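Reopening this one. Same input as before:
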Amino acid sequence: MTAVKKDKNVQKSAELAGPVTFSCCADSSVKVFLVLYDGKDGEISKEVEMSPDPFLGSVRKLTLEGIDLEKTFYNFRIDGEIVPDPAARRITGRGEFGCKDPRKEHQIRCGFASESFDWGGDRPLRLPERELVSYGLHVRGFTKSSSSGVKHKGTFQGIIEKIPYLTRLGITQVILLPAYEFDEIMQPVAAGPKPPVRKGPAPEAAVPAGPLKLNYWGYGPGFYYAPKESYSSSDQPDVELRSLVKALHKAGIEIIPEFSFPDDVDVQKVIDILSWWVRFYHVDGFRLMACDRICSAAAQSPLLKGSRLMAGYFDPDMVGKRDSSLPRGLTDFNDGFRNDLRRLLKSDENRLESFSSHMSSFDDKKERMVFLTSHDGFTLADLVSYDYKHNEENGEQNRDGAESEFSWNCGEEGPTRKKSIKELRLRQMKNAMAMILLSRGIPMIMAGDECCNSQGGNSNPWCIDSETTWVNWNRDAQAKEMTAFVKNLIRFRKENHFTQPAAVKPGADTIPSGYPACSSHGTRAWYGAFDYQNRHIGLMYCTPVDDTVEYLYFAFNFHWEKQILALPYLPEKMAWKQVMCTDRRSAGDEYAEREIELLPRTVCVLKGEVRE
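Same output, byte for byte:
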C-alpha cells in the first residue's frame, strides 16, 4: 500500500493542496475503503470506497482533489479491518513512547511528510574514511536522563542540543538505533515452560503472556518510511529529523540510521526505502541489519551510489563486481574485532596475533568498523566491573542474553568502594579506548562509554526503558578524567596519519627511508613475539607526510606484571618521546632510545621527534 503525492511541486503550503493518489493491495473479492480523518484527533471525516477493479495486478488506487496534506490523515478499511499504510511517510498516534496501545482501532493514522523545508544547500558529507570517529546512540536513551542537561529529552531535538558536546569530543559520525516508526508495545503470547533464550527480539518477536513488554531498541518490522513520532519534541517528526540532519552536517558530523529488515522482504522495497531516506532526509548511509541478499543488492544499487553501507558481512565476490565508479563506502560491521580484543583486554592467552592483525590490517575494497561495545552486551564500564550478566530486570530469570561477554570485574563484582579496583577499572577503560582509537579501522564509541555509563551489569536490556538504559551523564572525577582522555585520544588520531590508506596499500611495504610501513616488536626490535603466553607487543607505523616521515610506536601491555618492549632505532638526531599513556603513574614527555618499561595493564603512545 502507498499514498503518493501526484506532483511534489504543486503543494508547498496547506492552501494549495493538490490531487493525491492513494493505493493499496487487496483481493478483488473484498471491499476496500479509504478512511480519512480530520486532524490528529482521530475523528473520521469520511470514508470513500475504492473501485474493485484493480489498477494493476492486485493494486487498487483512488485519486482525490483538494486534500490538505498538513491536516489530513488516513487509513484503509480492508474487508472490515482498519489497516495502516506500510509505506506512509508519516505515522501519528504514537506520540508518547510506550504509554499507548497502538492496537486500538483508529489510534494509528497515516499522514504526509511536509514538502516544505529549507535545506540551505545541505548535502550528505561523504567524509574521508580516515576522518571518521563514529558514535552509536539510541535517540531516546541518549538524552532522556535528567543528567543530560537538555531541554527536549529523548528526542531528535535533544541530540541537536548535544551537538556542541559531540563536536568537542571529536565525533564525526553518529549511528542511530532504529529511528523509523515501530511498535514498541509487543504482542503477548502464551507462556511456555520457561522464557526463551534470546538476544533482543527476533524480527517477529513475541513475549510471554502477562504485562506487555517494550521493544526499546526498535528492531523488527516497522513503518520504514516514517520517522518515529515519539522521538520528536514537536508534532512534525519529519521536520525535526531533517533539522537534526542539517545541524549535524553543519557541525561536520555524518548521520547513519540503522534499518532492520526481515529475510523475506522484497529487495526493491528495501532499495526504495533507503533511497527515500537519502533523498528526503539527506542521511549519509545506513547500517543494515539484514541478510546477505539484501545487503548485496543495496551495495550494487545505483540509487545508493555514494551512500555508506554497513553490514555484518559483504561477500568478496560481490565487492569485486561492484561498479568501479562507486566510492569506497562499504563497511564490515561484525563482532570479530570486539570478541578478540575483549579477551586480550582481560589478559587471556594466545590473543596477540589476532590483535595485531585487527589493529593494522587494511582492505582496499571495504572498511572495518572497530568497537568493543554496542547496544547489546555490556557497556564499557560494565565490561570491567562484572564477570556475569545481571539481566533480572528483563523478567526472564536472567536466562536471556549471551552467556559470556569476555569481561573481567577487576577483582570485585559490581560497584565497589575500593580505590585500587576503581583505579584499575579506569585504566582498563582507557586501554579499551586505546585499542579502538589506535586501530586502522573506523572506530565506534557507544554513547556514554566515554563518561563511564553503566547499565548495572544488564547485557541485554532490549525491553527496558528507564534509567538503566538511559545514558547517565556522570560528572564525578573519574568520568571527567575518562572523557578528557578519550577527547585527547581522538585528537591524536586525527592529527597523525597512521590510518591513511596511502601508507598501507599493497606494495607499500616500505617507505622511502627504508622503514616498513607497519612492523611489530617484542623484547627484540623488529621481532614481534606472538607466543601463547605473551600479552605485550609494540606496533610501529611509518607514514610519509609531505617531505618528511611520521614515526609512531604503540606499546601495549595487557599482562598483570610489568614488561619490557624494545624500541627500534630512529634516523639520526631523532628519539622516541612518550606523548600519551593510560597509567597516570607513567612518566610523560620523556625520551627513550632502546626500550620502554610498561607498567601492568598499560598502553603507551610514543612518537619519533627530533631531540631538543
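So the earlier flakiness isn't reproducible anymore. For the record, Residues 134-495 form a domain with the TIM Barrel fold (CATH 3.20.20.80).
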